[in-house]
Write a structure and sequence with these properties.
mainly alpha, 428 residues, 79% helix
C-alpha cells in the first residue's frame, strides 16, 4: 500500500527508492544551506558599512529583480538544452562569484558587492527554473511528484531555519569570511551531486542545437506566452506568486527588526553580535514556518487540485494574520511565533501553486512557464522591497511596515477567490 501524498512516509519512500531525485534533493540541501548561511553576513555587513535600510533593500532587489528580465532567456535555455547541465554550470559560476565577496571590507567595496549579488542572481535565475522543471522527469506519477514538491519545500524551509541561525553564529564566532567560504564550497558540492543524476530529458529530443542568436530570439518566449494565454486556469495560477511578492517587504523589515528591535542579549554579546543573532533568530523563524506549512497542508491536500487551490486562499489569510500580529509583538519570542505563522502561509502558497503549475503544464513548456512564474513574483517583490526600504529611511517604523505587509495580503486573496470560477466544469 503506497503512502499518502504529503505524508512523512511518502517523503521517505521517494528518497529511499528514487536515486535521481535523492541526488537532486541532496544538492538542494547543500546549496540552499550555504545561501542562508551568508544572507545574514551580507545584510549585517551592509548595515555596518552604510547604516541605512536602503542598503538592504537594494541588495534584495538585486537578488530578485534581474530574474524578471533574464527569465525569458533562462526559460529558452532550460527548454532547449539539458536542465541538468544548466544547473551544474550555474553552481560552478556561483562558487566563483561568492568567493569574490571576500574582498569587500570597506564602504568603497559596496558597489562591487552589489555587482556580485547581481551576477549570482542571474545564475540562480537559470538554476531554479531548471530544478523545478526537471523534477517531474525524475518522478513517477502525480503521487511521487506531490511528495517531491512537498519535500523540496520542506528542505528549503529547514535550510532557511538552520542556515540563518548558523550563519549568525558562525559570523559572530569566526567572522563573515568563513561564511562566504562555506557558501562557495556548498555550490561545488551541489554541482558534484548533480553530475550523478541519470535522466533522459525528453525536451532535448528535437536535436535542434541552441545557438547564441537563440538567446535573443523572442519567438520561443512568445510561443510560451500564447500557450499560457490559451489556458486561463494556467495563467491565473502563474500569477499566484506575483501576489506573494506583494508581501516582499518582509525581506527588509525582518533583518532590521532583528538588529534594532529584537537584538539577542546585546549586553552580553555586544551590539553588533547581538544584532546579527537577532537577525538570525527572525530569519530562522521563517524557516520553521516554511517547514510546518507544507508539512501540515501537504498532508491535508495531497494531490487533490481543488484542495490545493483552497490551500492557496487559506495561505494568503494566514500570511496577513501573521504579519499584522508581528507589528504588535512585545518581545523577540512573540515575534518569532508570528513570523512562523506568516511564513507557514507563504510556504503553502508557494508549494501549492508550484504543484498546480506542474500538473497543468506540458513538459516542453515547463522551463518557460517556471521562468515566468519566478519572474512575475520577483518583479512585484522588487517594487515592494524598494518602497519598503525607502519608507523606513524616511521615518516609517518597521512595525508599521509589518502591519501594512499583512494588510495587503487581502488583495491576492480576494483575486484568487474570484478566479475560482474559472475551474467550474473543468476535469482535473
Amino acid at each position: 500500500m503506497s503512502a499518502r501524498p504529503g505524508s512523512l512516509g511518502s517523503y521517505w519512500h521517494i528518497l529511499r527508492t528514487n536515486r535521481n531525485y535523492r541526488l537532486l534533493w541532496m544538492a538542494q540541501i547543500i546549496s540552499e544551506m550555504g545561501d542562508w548561511l551568508y544572507a545574514v553576513a551580507i545584510y549585517s555587513l551592509l548595515l555596518d558599512l552604510t547604516g541605512v535600510a536602503n542598503s538592504i533593500s537594494l541588495a534584495v532587489v538585486l537578488q530578485v529583480l534581474p530574474q524578471f528580465f533574464i527569465g525569458p532567456m533562462a526559460g529558452v535555455v532550460n527548454d532547449r538544452i539539458s536542465r541538468k547541465t544548466v544547473m551544474i554550470a550555474a553552481d560552478l559560476a556561483r562558487a566563483v562569484i561568492v568567493l569574490g565577496m571576500l574582498t569587500v571590507q570597506t564602504k568603497a567595496g559596496v558597489p562591487f558587492l552589489y555587482l556580485l549579488l547581481l551576477l549570482e542572481t542571474l545564475m540562480w535565475a537559470f538554476f531554479e527554473p531548471g530544478r523545478t522543471a526537471l523534477t517531474p522527469a525524475l518522478t513517477n506519477g502525480d503521487s511521487e511528484l506531490a511528495a517531491a514538491n512537498g519535500l523540496s519545500s520542506m528542505t528549503w524551509s529547514v535550510s532557511l531555519a538552520l542556515g540563518s541561525m548558523a550563519g549568525g553564529l558562525i559570523a559572530a564566532a569566526f567572522g563573515r569570511g568563513a561564511v562566504f567560504g562555506l557558501n562557495a564550497a556548498s555550490f561545488l558540492i551541489s554541482a558534484m551531486l548533480l553530475r550523478g543524476i541519470r535522466v533522459h530529458e525528453t525536451h532535448c529530443d528535437s536535436g535542434k542545437p541552441l545557438r547564441g542568436a537563440d538567446l535573443f530570439d523572442f519567438s520561443p518566449f512568445l510561443e510560451g506566452a500564447r500557450y499560457v494565454f490559451r489556458n486561463p486556469c494556467l495563467l491565473t495560477t502563474l500569477l499566484v506568486k506575483a501576489g506573494l511578492g506583494l508581501m516582499g517587504a518582509h525581506w527588509v523589515f525582518l533583518p532590521l527588526m532583528g538588529e534594532r528591535t529584537f537584538p539577542v542579549a546585546p549586553h552580553s554579546f555586544g551590539a553588533q553580535r547581538g544584532g546579527m543573532l537577532g537577525m538570525s533568530v527572525l530569519l530562522g523563524a521563517r524557516g520553521v514556518g516554511a517547514l510546518l506549512g507544507p508539512l501540515i497542508g501537504g498532508y491535508w491536500a495531497g494531490k487533490d487540485q481543488q484542495r490545493l487551490r483552497q490551500g492557496i486562499l487559506a495561505g494568503f489569510a494566514v500570511i496577513g494574520t501573521g504579519y499584522i500580529a508581528l507589528s504588535r509583538a512585545p518581545d523577540v519570542w512573540a515575534a518569532v511565533a508570528t513570523v512562523i505563522l506568516a511564513q507557514a502561509g507563504a510556504s503553502v502558497v508557494w508549494t501549492f501553486s508550484t504543484m498546480l503549475l506542474q500538473f497543468q503544464t506540458e513538459d516542453r513548456f515547463r522551463g518557460r512557464v517556471f521562468s515566468a512564474d519566478f519572474g512575475f513574483m520577483t518583479l512585484t517583490m522588487a517594487v515592494v522591497i524598494a518602497i519598503g526600504g525607502s519608507a523606513i529611511d524616511l521615518g516609517v517604523s518597521v512595525r508599521t511596515l509589518a502591519f501594512w505587509t499583512g494588510a495587503i495580503a487581502i488583495v491576492p486573496a480576494l483575486l484568487w477567490l474570484r478566479a475560482q470560477r474559472l475551474w467550474k466544469g473543468t476535469h482535473e
